């Protein structure tokens, strides 16, 4: 049986996402079964691009609107400076031939990395499965995450 | 060295050479040899380590002036 990697992606920042997808794709390329579990803000990485105003209640809709979805416009966990730092980082990554997050997601798809999303943040942000990118396999609860992670050789929280 | 296929990853950074190698190897048959061209210095360790993780055979590295040639035999 192939070795297994289980990575919790908690954050939606460019630097952390970069780390998560680099390790995930490297592990998958090295023959591991890889699962990324997007929880809390991490869900924004696998949302379709842009803003929407959805949800059951006004506060729900506001939260949905205030959290921008999509992997192409992420900020940095430090040195962001209202987006200038993030813009510089993206320029540098491109200049140094480092993949963008959307490119890494495309590679993750090719390599068979599984993308699973935590249930609670989707409820808080008023998101449905159709608001997430097609690569997302399912929205799941913690018991399913625990079962899927059983026996993992590599577990990370990013 | 004779290779059945070649992948040019010069200019690409980690994890691209490994990812591109893995994708190409999937389409190859057991016993075939892949040549990988890369200039990312970490590839010198990454390629043999990738082979040991995946059970493929690392044959050889040849150093050119500005890049490396790796030869990997598909045995997994």
Structural description of this entry:
The complex is a heterodimer of chains A (158) and B (76). Chain A is of the alpha/beta class and 158 residues long. Chain A has a single domain (4-157), classed as DsrEFH-like (Hypothetical Protein Ychn, Chain: A, 3-Layer(aba) Sandwich), CATH 3.40.1260.10. Helices cover 39% and strands 16% of the residues of chain A. Chain A has six helices and five strands; from the N terminus they run βαβαααβαβαβ. Chain A has a five-stranded parallel beta sheet. In chain A, α1 links the parallel β1 and β2. Chain A is globular. Helices cover 32% and strands 30% of the residues of chain B. Chain B is α+β, with helices and mostly antiparallel strands and 76 residues long. In chain B, strands 1-2-4-3 form a four-stranded mixed beta sheet, covered by helices on one side. In chain B, β3 and β4 (68-73) form a beta hairpin. Chain B starts with a strand and ends with a strand. Chain B is globular, with a radius of gyration of 11 Å. The longest helix of chain B has 12 residues, at 16-27. Chain B has a single domain (5-73), classed as 2-Layer Sandwich (Translation Initiation Factor IF3). Classes of the chains: A alpha/beta (158), B alpha+beta (76).
Under CATH, the topology of chain A can be stated as Hypothetical Protein Ychn, Chain: A
Estimate what percentage of residues of chain A fall within beta strands.
15-25%
Spatially, the strands of the biggest sheet of chain A line up as: 4-3-2-1-5
Shape summary of chain A = globular
Q: Count up the domains of chain A.
A: 1
Q: What fold name stands as the CATH topology of chain B? A: Translation Initiation Factor IF3
Query: What series of H and E elements makes up the topology of chain B?
Result: EHEHEE
Unreliable runs of chain A: none
- Major beta sheet of chain B, specifics? 4 strands, mixed
Assembly state (oligomeric): heterodimer
Number of strands of chain B: 4
**Helix amount of chain B, in percent?**
25-40%
From the alpha carbons, calculate the radius of gyration of chain A and give it in angstroms: 16 Å
Q: How many distinct beta strands of chain A?
A: 5
Q: What is the architecture of chain B at the second tier of CATH?
A: 2-Layer Sandwich
Count of discrete alpha- or pi-helical segments spanning 4 or more residues of chain B: 2
CATH C-level class of chain A: Alpha Beta
Beta-strand percentage range of chain B: 25-35%
Q: CATH H level of chain B: which superfamily?
A: TusA-like domain
Under the CATH scheme, the architecture of chain A is: 3-Layer(aba) Sandwich
């Amino acid at each position: 049986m192939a070795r297994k990697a289980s990575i919790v992606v908690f954050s939606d920042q460019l630097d952390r996402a970069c780390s998560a997808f680099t390790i995930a794709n490297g592990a998958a390329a090295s023959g591991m079964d890889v699962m990324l579990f997007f929880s809390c803000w991490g869900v924004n990485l696998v949302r379709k691009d842009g803003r929407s105003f959805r949800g059951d209640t006004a506060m729900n809709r506001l939260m949905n609107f205030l959290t921008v979805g999509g992997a192409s416009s992420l900020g940095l966990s430090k040195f962001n400076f209202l987006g200038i730092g993030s813009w510089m980082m993206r320029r540098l990554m491109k200049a140094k031939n480092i993949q963008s997050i959307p490119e890494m997601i495309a590679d993750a798809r090719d390599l068979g990395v599984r993308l699973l999303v935590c249930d609670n943040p989707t409820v808080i942000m008023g998101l449905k499965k159709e608001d997430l990118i097609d690569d997302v396999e399912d929205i799941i609860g913690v018991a399913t995450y625990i079962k899927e992670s059983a026996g993992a050789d590599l577990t990370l929280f990013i | 060295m004779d290779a059945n296929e070649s992948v040019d990853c010069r200019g690409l950074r980690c994890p691209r050479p490994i990812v591109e190698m893995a994708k190409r190897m999937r389409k190859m048959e057991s016993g075939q040899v892949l040549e990988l061209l890369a200039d990312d210095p970490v590839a010198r360790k990454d390629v043999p380590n990738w082979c040991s993780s995946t059970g493929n055979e690392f044959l050889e590295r040849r150093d050119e002036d500005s890049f490396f040639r790796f030869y990997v035999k598909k045995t997994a």
